[in-house]
Amino acid sequence: MDEETQSNSLLKRHLSWVDLAMVLGGIVGIYLILAFGTFWLMGRWPHERILMYLNAFLTQLSFAALIWSIKKIRHWEWSDFGWHSVPMRNTFRKILSLYALTWFINICYAIFLYQHGLTPPDTDVYTKLLGQTTSLTLTLNLVLAGVLAPFVEETLFRGVIFGSLQAYFGKWTSAVLSAVIFSALHFQAYGFFPRFMLGMVLVYLYDKYKSLYPAIALHAFNNIVATLIAASLPM
User: Fold this and answer.
1) What pTM did the predictor assign?
2) What is the Cβ-side half-sphere exposure of residue 59, based on CA atoms within 13 angstroms?
3) CA gyration radius for the chain?
4) 75 by DSSP, 3-state: which?
5) Helix (H) or strand (E) holding 234
6) Could you give the C-alpha distances from 185 to 21, 25, 191, in angstroms and in order?
7) Dist CA 100 CA 118 (whole Å)
8) Interior CA angle at 66 toward 59 and 30, to 5°?
């Protein structure tokens, strides 16, 4: 499939404003329902960390169900989500250079916050999931962050949301909007800016190669390295 055909395929299917609003509402609803359910169970079951893992996995599985619903109801093919084959060997250098860029941004951001006396809150869910790492929790974190999240979130946020916004706005307006949505829906103020920048980089990869595979590769690599680093730090 040549680049022009792939580019046309990206815009062949997109959600209407109503459908897109329903999808965004569904994402918010998933977060809220699972969050309230988790908090409710925390008052009745003392195993907070288990509930957090359950919440995280159910969130990704619910997103996957949302994607499957779009596919069935709108009769999309997987290619309509951005699942196009691409020679990954040709993308490695670009992925690594962009990964280095995101880490440079993260380091500068962390230094800026530290200089202003700001640190991640102890109550942050990511801090709690990565604290007191064992072989089991490390495996769960790697599966969650390194496998499920990249595949599901790239399909949803880049393939569905960015792909649909691009039918109504310019490419970069859609990129900014989708990156804002991607970062905001993680509900973590401390990490909003670096996650927004990651979202912009992922959109760039998706648009450049007309495929989700490079974006998934960068997303997975970023999450795996971050998980391993966090797991090695004393909590």
Assistant:
1) 0.88
2) 23
3) 18
4) coil
5) none
6) 14, 11, 11
7) 24
8) 40
Cβ pair 212, 82 in contact under 8 A: yes
pLDDT in tens, the chain (235 residues): 444 444 444 445 789 999 999 999 999 999 999 999 998 998 888 888 889 899 999 999 999 999 999 999 999 999 999 999 998 888 999 999 999 999 999 899 989 888 878 776 655 555 566 556 778 888 999 999 999 999 999 999 999 999 999 989 989 999 999 999 999 987 777 788 999 999 999 999 999 999 999 999 999 999 999 888 877 765 5
* Segments in the chain forming alpha helices (H): 3-12, 17-42, 48-73, 92-115, 125-130, 135-143, 149-153, 163-165, 171-184, 192-209, 213-232
Domain locations in the chain as residue ranges: 3-232
Q: Look at residues 198, 179, 190, 201 and name the one whose alpha carbon lies nearest to residue 124.
A: 190
Structure tokens at 161: 């949301």
Q: How is residue 45 annotated by DSSP?
A: -
Quick check: 196 and 118 in contact, CB under 8 A? no
Residue recorded with tokens 């993260």? 106
